[in-house]
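TASK: fixed-backbone design
INPUT:
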């Protein structure tokens, strides 16, 4: 049996392995978040390659799998390859308007069974349950990304019509597609965008949840034995598209 002293020492050892990862300071609340968000966007036009490289490094550091492609047209082939390697067939996706492109025909042509989410919120409990069942039995979940935080390799997804959180949480493999417009450098910058969405009333969607996804789902018991996929996907893939997804 592990003693209290041994347990605390193991926690200290884990903390020592990642010094400086969680600085204990809070950021100021922006006075004009929409204007500050626009400034961040302008500045990142010049340094997005460095920001993307930082995101890739951190994302892979938390066991994410990073892909890069020239255009959205190549994404179905990447998804099909991921599916083939896992002997997967069923894919549930965000609606094309939320995803930024209609990939369902090309995915179907690759031999996948594709289930796009409807554009509108389900009208009743039975339909909501049917869609949740589709997501739960799917092998892959394909989504867009609202923010990609380079500092931590984190994907931020806002739920809403056409983009239910079940798409990213229930399938064992989550694939997220984004371009440079989603990139931010830090959690502080992400907070500015959250404030702007809240204060200006123009979030990417009107759902009740915002998910921060940092690598595959993982949990550990009191002995610090790590297990993946207990509370979400065992795998998370991020596909960066060099050309803007939305015109």
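OUTPUT:
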């Amino acid at each position: 049996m592990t003693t209290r002293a041994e347990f605390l020492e193991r926690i200290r050892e884990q903390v020592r392995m990642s010094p400086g990862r969680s600085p204990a300071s809070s950021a100021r609340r922006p006075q004009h978040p929409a204007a500050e968000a626009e400034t961040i966007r302008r500045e990142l036009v010049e340094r997005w390659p460095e920001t993307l490289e930082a995101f890739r490094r951190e994302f892979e550091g938390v066991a994410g799998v990073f892909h890069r492609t020239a255009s959205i047209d190549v994404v179905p082939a990447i998804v099909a390859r991921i599916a083939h390697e896992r002997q997967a067939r069923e894919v549930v996706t965000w609606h094309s308007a939320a995803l930024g492109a209609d990939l369902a025909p090309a995915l179907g042509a690759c031999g996948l069974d594709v289930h796009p989410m409807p554009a509108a919120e389900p009208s009743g409990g039975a339909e909501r349950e049917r869609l949740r069942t589709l997501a739960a039995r799917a092998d892959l979940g394909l989504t867009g990304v609202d923010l990609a935080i380079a500092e931590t390799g984190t994907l931020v997804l806002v739920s809403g019509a056409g983009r239910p959180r079940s798409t990213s949480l229930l399938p064992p493999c989550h694939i997220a597609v984004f371009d440079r417009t989603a990139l931010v450098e830090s959690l502080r910058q992400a907070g500015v965008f959250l404030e702007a969405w809240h204060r200006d009333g123009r979030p990417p969607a009107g759902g009740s949840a915002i998910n921060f996804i940092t690598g595959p789902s993982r949990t550990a018991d009191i002995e610090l034995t790590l297990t993946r996929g207990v509370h979400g996907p065992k795998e998370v893939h991020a596909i960066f598209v060099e050309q803007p997804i939305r015109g």
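COMMENT: The chain has a mean pLDDT of 89.
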